[in-house]
Amino acid sequence: MAVPAWYSGRVGLSALVAGVGGMVADYRKLRRGFHWDTPRPAGWPEAARAAPDRPTDLGWARTEPFRSIRWVLQKGILNPFTEAMAHPTVEGEEWVQELDRPVILASNHTSHADTPLLLYALGDRVRERTVVAAAEDYFYGRRMIGFLTSLWLNTFPFSRTGSPREVLHRSGQLLKSGWNLLVFPEGTRSADGALQPFTPGIGHLATENRVDVIPMHVRGAHRIMPKGRDLPLPAKATIKIGKPLRVGEGETSRAFSARVERAVHELADGTHSNEVEGSWIERWQATEPRPRSRF
User: How do 212-219 and 238-241 pair as beta strands?
Assistant: First the structure.
């Protein structure tokens, strides 16, 4: 109240200075009382935002001009580099050349080289409409790394530690918006290259959104860039793609997850079954041109 009293003429300048000095002293006492710079007591809960940031699905990466920039980067740099490093062989590519509805692409995961190899195996039209699931804690801890990952690969961040409900919801929104979703149901990279058990989330996502799942398997990526190595080394790679799997009538999400896992195992083992490879007529029909959507 010192400033209004001085402005009205009721007190002089000396009283104003004294009043402001008293306010500064009170502020210092208050600040010391809150112990801003001292450790928090052990019994207190962890410090957190009053309102946590809302998770993002990085929608900017799926808008122009970023879509066109990514097309140039992948066609002009990523795919040629992948070809030079791995000389990939693609088997079953007819299943992903023409798709008329969104699908989930489910693959094993042994290396950071998996994603470039899998994108290489997709047809141009399918690759342009594919979002890649990426671990939020690994790729998005640093803003610039997260930005570049999203720009190059059109990644979709998911949390490996929190509740899966939000991740499944946002994944479903992407599928309903016409995007294919490339996921690694093992959850993390295999340290020795062997397949790990699949999480049931893949089945829940497929059953809730009524979309097909295309099983895929990458062999050789573990030699290119195994877990713990920062730079890739040249090695031959093979990508096998199976026939789309559809949720059966009355089939539970866990049962369907197990069926997808079994299909990826069969691709890895080279098992020849009609459910995974399809008949020659089905493979021929899969290459039939689909009507171009406006998406």
Answer: antiparallel
Query: From the CA atom positions of the chain, what is the Rg in Å?
Result: 27
Neighbours of 133 (CB within 10 A): 20
Tell whether the model's pLDDT for residue 165 goes beyond 90.
Answer: no
Q: Are residues 107 and 223 in the same domain?
A: yes
Are 223 and 127 found together in one domain?
Answer: yes
Q: Alpha carbon 27 to chain centroid distance?
A: 47
Length of the chain: 295
Neighbouring C-beta atoms of residue 23, cutoff 10 Å: 13
Q: Are residues 80 and 15 in the same domain?
A: no
Buried b / exposed e over 145-160, threshold 16 CB at 10 Å, is ebeebbbbbbbbbbee
Q: How far apart are CA 176 and CA 148, in angstroms?
A: 26
- The answer to whether residue 200 sits within a structural domain is yes
The pTM score is 0.79
Tell me which DSSP letter residue 61 carries. Answer: G
C-beta separation of 121 from 96 below 8 A: yes
Domain range enclosing 21? 2-34
What are the pLDDT digits (tens) for 126-145? 999 999 998 887 787 788 88
Pairing between β-strand 130-135 and β-strand 212-219 as defined by DSSP bridges: unpaired
pLDDT higher than 70, residue 8: no
pLDDT tens-digit readout, 216-265: 999 999 999 988 888 899 999 999 999 999 999 999 999 999 999 999 99
Number of structural domains the chain divides into: 2
Predicted local distance difference test score (pLDDT) of residue 162: 62
Q: What is the pLDDT of residues 81-93, one digit of tens each?
A: 999 999 999 999 9
In a domain, 159, yes or no: yes
- From 123, 106, 89, 132, select the one nearest 245 (Cα to Cα): 106
Residues 6+ apart with CB under 8 A from 287: 94, 97, 98
